[in-house]
């Protein structure tokens, strides 16, 4: 008889921003569409605020405020990159509510985004959510079939130990 005392439960990652969920391959930037940074999905936002998709720790806040990296409590690392070519905005249109090292809960505000400003001044508002350590082979990821997501409510993907 085998006991799985140490088998961890699957972890749900929620949509960090409300909008249309699209495959990463549809992001008009090869770094994301060719999964150079890892596997994931993207959201075309219908609202601006970015919330934490999971319980974890902030491991990166871009100096230009357009991206945040998180390490979930299960070890999965994700990058939420708001829009394309938003680095050039130099922080305008973004108000970051967290800093490196902060513990966050699913649904907690990470970044306030002026979606109108971003849509006018950046290439795109599409927001890739990338699992940056998806290639380590320790977990398997099941991505949603949903086409619309509500921030903090719709499961984007589930991570479980292999």
Automatic annotation (TrEMBL):
GO cellular component, one term: cytoplasm
GO biological process, one term: phosphoenolpyruvate-dependent sugar phosphotransferase system
Annotated localization: Cytoplasm
UniProt cross-references to PROSITE patterns, sorted A to Z: PTS_EIIA_TYPE_1 (PS51093), PTS_EIIA_TYPE_1_HIS (PS00371)
Record domain PTS EIIA type-1: where: 29-133
Lineage: Bacteria, Bacillati, Bacillota, Bacilli, Bacillales
Keywords assigned: Kinase, Phosphotransferase system, Sugar transport, Transferase, Transport
InterPro entries membership: Dup_hybrid_motif, PTS_EIIA_1_perm, PTS_EIIA_component
Signal sequence region: none
Protein name: PTS glucose transporter subunit IIA
Coiled coil spans: none
Gene Ontology MF terms in the entry: kinase activity
Pfam families documented for this protein: PTS_EIIA_1
């Amino acid at each position: 008889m085998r006991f799985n005392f140490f088998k961890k439960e699957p972890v749900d990652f929620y949509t960090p921003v409300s909008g249309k969920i699209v495959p990463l391959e549809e992001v008009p930037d090869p770094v994301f569409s060719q999964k150079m940074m890892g596997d994931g999905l993207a959201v075309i936002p219908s609202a601006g605020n970015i919330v934490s998709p999971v319980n974890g720790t902030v491991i990166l806040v871009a100096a230009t405020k357009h991206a945040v990296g998180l390490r979930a409590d299960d070890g999965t690392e994700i990058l939420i990159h708001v829009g394309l070519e938003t680095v050039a905005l130099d922080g305008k249109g973004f108000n970051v509510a967290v800093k490196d090292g902060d513990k966050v809960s699913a649904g907690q505000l990470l970044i306030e985004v002026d979606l109108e400003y971003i849509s006018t001044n950046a290439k795109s508002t599409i927001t890739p959510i990338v699992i940056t350590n998806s290639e380590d082979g320790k977990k398997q990821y099941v991505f949603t079939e949903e086409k619309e997501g509500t921030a903090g409510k719709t499961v984007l993907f589930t991570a479980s130990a292999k």
